[in-house]
Structures are given as structure tokens and as C-alpha cells.
Write a structure and sequence with these properties.
- Helix 3 packs parallel to helix 5 and helix 5 runs parallel beside helix 6.
- The C terminus is likely disordered.
- Helix content is about 45%, strand content about 10%.
- The protein has about 350 residues and is α/β, with parallel strands linked by helices.
- About 40% of the residues are buried.
Amino acid sequence: MGFLGGWLVDRLLKAGAHVVCLLRDWTPNARLHRNGLLDSVSVVHGDITDQPLVERALGEYEAATVFHLAAQTIVPIANRNPISTFESNIRGTWTILEACRRSPAVQQIVVASSDKAYGEQEVLPYTEQTPLQGTFPYDVSKSCADLLANAYWQTYKLPVCVTRCGNFYGGGDLNWNRIVPGTIRAALSGRRPVIRSDGSPIRDYLYVEDGAAAYMLLAERMAADPAIVGQAFNFSNEQPVSVLELARMILEQLDSPLVPDVRNEASGEILRQCLSAERARAILGWRPQYSLDDGLARTVEWYRQYFAAADSEAADRARHRHDACVHPSLAMPHWSAMGIDAQVM
């Protein structure tokens, strides 16, 4: 369960939903773990490409609404390891869709595509009518997943909708290769933030709480209005900025005098991307609650607290190690009470 998934689970739980999560890897710093959300959900351990497992989970928990968010989402990783990306993003999608087709309890499916599914285009912003023409491995994987969802709707009338969003950002993203958390971490530690590209690529950035709200709203509207089923929706705050401009906005939020370290090493990425959210406004009544400035302010504050808490925890661990070595009898009095022979090495 990744970055957006943690925020969506939080929102679903607050709405009183019974949530079932499919988890492949144990990531102790993920939002699900740090916020104690796992104590409130049902967990199925396994891989998204394991169709019998997915079918069993859907059947046993009688899932009515499915959010398919599982994917390999990092572009450089996709460029280095295309096969693993295709496995999770393409095979994982048809596995979910086929399992849902075989599960009569499923009533709504929301499949996460991406603005990358549109590929490089001369006409911007992307609308939902823009052709899907990914070129690079990650982009191709999202184009394919998107087309698979449409195929299952057109062929089997599977109740599916597709979301296409820009780059999510916000508190809880611990992938430091991404521009927002990477810039914040570097600046807070006094280091120049690294920009892998030349800084010029244009992107949409959507605050993660707006993204989670969009996914929930879409599922709710699908349940209320069958005419919405089978459609794709762009979600964007429609404030595209360059990577370099975004880094500078973050440094301003932090009152940092640092200057980004522009490496110009990136390859295999689309140069200009931005989305029109007109359909989501007109049909779903959706609007983002946070501007880019507001979202960045909330994000910076989250990471300030996160690193302050991490520093405090590290200091406590160091203090406890010192106490255990210097005063073993004081540090572990309960061991002798239980008759355990302990040695401090």
C-alpha cells in the first residue's frame, strides 16, 4: 500500500468503511504503519499478480468497491527495470479486472492510470479525449492499464472508471527520489536539493489529500449514477509548473537560501505535461481544496514534524543504549524478576 493508498485508507476509515488492504511488502515507515491504520483494516498478504489470491480476497470479504492503486510508480526504476514494471502495472491490472469480473459482489472499480498514459503530445492540456500513446516504459505501462480497463468495460460491462492524475505530493511520501520530499529533506539537512533533469520539464502536482478525496468521490458517484461508469477522469489543480520552479517554491516555504543542484542527467521522460479537469468539474462536481502554495505549506509542515520526531526517537534510542551499557541492572530490572539470565554485550 503506497503513498496515496495510505491517505485513501485513512479517509475511508473516517467515513466508516470496512477496508481490506492487499499488502505485498512490509514498509514500517509507511503511513499505514506509522499512523496505526493497520489496526483498523483487514490485511491480505500477497502480490497483485496472484489471481487466485485476489479472487479469494474479493470473495471472502465480499468487496463492493475496489480501488486499484497498486503499481510501480517511479520513472527511473521503470527505465532500469521495465519487466518488473510491466508485471505490476499491466499484468497486475488485468489480474484485478479479471478477478473483479468473476466476483459478483463487486459493484464499483476505480483504476488508477496517470497523466503519463497520454505520452508526449503537441496540444496541451490533456483532455480525456487525448489519445493514449505512452512511449517510455512507465508511460506505456499506464497506457496499457488504461486500455485494459476500457476493454473490460466495453466487452463485459465491468463497472470500472479510470483516474488520470498528475504527480501526487504531500506528507508521508518517503521516496526521496521524488522532487518534493527530496527537496524538503535536503534543505532541512542543509544540503542543496538535486534536480536530475535540466529543471525545465513541466508537470501537474496534485496534493495527496485532494487525490484521496477525488477517488472517494468518483466511487460514490459511480454508485449513485450508472451513467458515469466506463468513463475516465482527469484530476488536476491546473497549476502546471517546471521542476525547477517547484523546487524554488519549496525552498521559499522553508526560508532556505540554498540553490538547487541541477544535474541534467534524466532521460526517458516527457518534457511537458498538464491536465484539464473540466470533465471532473462538470460531471462529478469535483474541485481541489488546496492550491499548490497551500498544499506545499501543509507538506513542509508534515516533514518538519516527521524529522523532528525521528530525531527525538534517535536520541531516545541512543540514551537507552547508553543506559543499558552503563547501568544494566537499572535498565532491565524485570529480567531478574522473571528468572532470565541476561548478559549485556
